[in-house]
Amino acid sequence: MAAVTSVALDAPAPTPVPTVAVARAEEEPQPAPSPAVRIDATAVAVLLLGAMIIVSFQSFGSASFFERNFARHFDGWPKAGMYDFVYWFGSSIAWLFMLPVLVIALMPRRRLRDFGFGLGDWRFGVRTAMALYAVMLPVLAVASFRANFIEYYPMSGWVRDEISLYAAGGSNAHLASFVLYEMAYAAYFIGWEFFHRGFLTIGLQPALGWYAVFVVAIPFGILHVGKPMPEAYGAIIASVVLGWLAVRTRSSWYGFALHASIAITMDLLAVAHQV
Description:
The protein is mostly helical. Helices cover 73% and strands 0% of the residues. The protein is globular, with a radius of gyration of 31 Å.
């Protein structure tokens, strides 16, 4: 027993853990528990219904849909050659404006103003829209000399023929066709801009922040496939700029004014080369 006791007494004592090291270990931040996923019901509704509206508009609201299903019933009617595009422009009001308005009306505690229907910061909106139009004007003027630009605009081949007839000495009735077409074209952008900049961008902004501007640029760019390539790629940048303007002003109306002005200017420049 004496020998055992001696060995035990002679064993080295355990090295003490420094007090500072213990304190630091206790202070090490522990991983926080994963927060519960919060679903924003408004964002989900905007995303899902927005996708359904785009598909429906592209399927049933296009000029080609009118040509396949209704055009034959209007043979011989005055200016029937542009009815397909008038149908398309009117469908924009129905699918991209009136339907989102109905959806918003059914949302609890949501107003049209919450989706950019009001004027918002109108001073900033008017100044910025005018400045952006001034920047775009020389770009459009240069682009208007491209052959594919002149051949594509105005988009209605029938309207282009009317302009050619007017340039060849035709009556003012041919010019009136162009004016009526442009008025319907301008109305088209009410639905187009309210849907993309109001319903989608401003509608998603509370959930996604500024990312909403870039998310909306995806479908916006896809919907420009088939147009002249510079315009198709430029539409992505334009969507970001128009989205920024909508979120900054809390209104889709300045995007409408800018987009419609640019589109009509493109037609006028193309026509100027044909006359």
